[in-house]
Design brief:
Two copies of one chain form a homodimer.
Chain A lengths: L3 E5 L5 H14 L7 H12 L6 E7 L2 E13 L4 E11 L8 H15 L4 E7 L3 H9 L3 E2 L3 E7 L12
Parallel strand pairs in A: 4-5
Antiparallel strand pairs in A: 1-2, 2-3, 3-4
Chain lengths: 162, 162
């Protein structure tokens, strides 16, 4: 099997990464980023005021997967958390150990950054991913409910819903 | 009723905020920050490399509540999210509208920062909080499972569990 390289994404990788983001959105039955969101995503990932980090898996010249992450914080541990917003391996490259290689690199990064934890969310029907995460020694936080308040497209300046 | 002031926390508020953090940990039946964590928390909240933001509620000279937040990011929206790590009102100041005032300020901040969303987690037995969040127009993400991998105190450099 050809060697998988795990490395930080470069600006020139963006179009390929974006295709994977759209593939992930379809896989998760969610809305992929719009055209204007795509542009913001490029600037927020590679511009001067970078807000997030992208790791990619590459085989030959093909980008086969990506991980999108940033740092959150635990007030009780008083440590950073590496939060994995997305991790995705393209359908035809599954079950080749690429996800495992990416997680290894992410864990090394988190340890180097003195994080106390790594965290992420998974859709409850994604049993392949859940099996993989359990094998990693990760635990579901079953007694917590994740809440979201949407603010777009045009919330009231006085606080919508209040 | 005396007027509640909502404002950004100052360094001199830290001891009072820390008491509330410990009160929250006891309320959630979780481990409060250790002595060394307390020091890191001060530096990470008020030092030169600030990682998070603290908002407080004050009545006269008493700090009655705090909100601890930072920004995460949605790759699909390509927008920042205001993530609320903690929001807590001291037991004796509950049901006075303080939480509502804090949320109003947090939503205004999120809108000003062009966030697409606000997100937070709640313990599934905390029905008062859940009732309050539902009234705000927030929604539970019931089909997502939150996963955590603990990295402390001393994970293997090769990626524990891999």
């Amino acid at each position: 099997m050809k060697k998988t390289i795990i490395r930080k994404a470069r600006k020139s990788d963006f179009e390929d990464i974006f295709k994977l983001i759209v593939e992930l959105a379809h896989f998760e039955k969610l809305t992929p980023p719009s055209k204007t969101a795509k542009k913001r995503l490029f600037l927020d990932s590679f511009g001067a005021k970078r807000k997030n980090n992208i790791l990619i898996a590459q085989i030959d010249n093909e980008i086969t997967g990506y991980a999108f992450y940033f740092y959150t914080y635990s007030s009780f541990l008083a440590r950073k958390t590496l939060y994995l917003e997305d991790i995705f391996i393209s359908q035809k490259f599954r079950a080749k150990g690429i996800g495992k290689l990416m997680f290894k690199e992410l864990i090394n990064t988190a340890v180097k950054e003195k994080c106390g934890r790594m965290e992420w969310c998974v859709l409850d029907w994604n049993i392949n991913a859940i099996y993989f995460y359990n094998k990693l020694g990760a635990k579901p936080l079953n007694d917590w409910i994740y809440y979201r308040k949407n603010l777009s497209p045009s919330p009231s300046p006085n606080g919508e819903g209040l």
